[in-house]
Hints:
The chain is an alpha+beta fold. It has one domain. 38% of the residues lie in helices and 22% in strands.
Amino acid sequence: MELDKALGFAVILSWDDLKKASDPCSARVEYRSAVGTAVDYLSIWSVDAEGKQNMVGDYWTWTSSAHPSGIRFNNKFHSQQLGLALDFILMNQDQFTRPADACPEGLALIYPPTGDELTEATTWMGGVHGAATNVSRAAAEEVVAL
């Protein structure tokens, strides 16, 4: 599966949480990574009907004195589902593909999901957590239970 699709699934799974914080018409995940290299940082944004963009949160795969690793939410937004899904995806990103001609600026655009898209995302996430090697058993069980 392509990385952008997996990131889109993570946002789709947390769409209800996103709706509680704003009324998004779309969302996007931005990251920078040359093909063949790991994503170190990404940001998640929501966009309302008037085009106003709000940073929902960001994710670092490593800790520094400037930031902790993992998800950080902004503007009173919180989604355990999004945090767990991003943990899984970024801990296993070597399992996802990017097109050979992809530019270094990655972008996953997400629109309000249909019922079929939500079902597909839920089925995929449940299935991959069952087969995952880079996720704790407790975290996998917590995601499936959500």
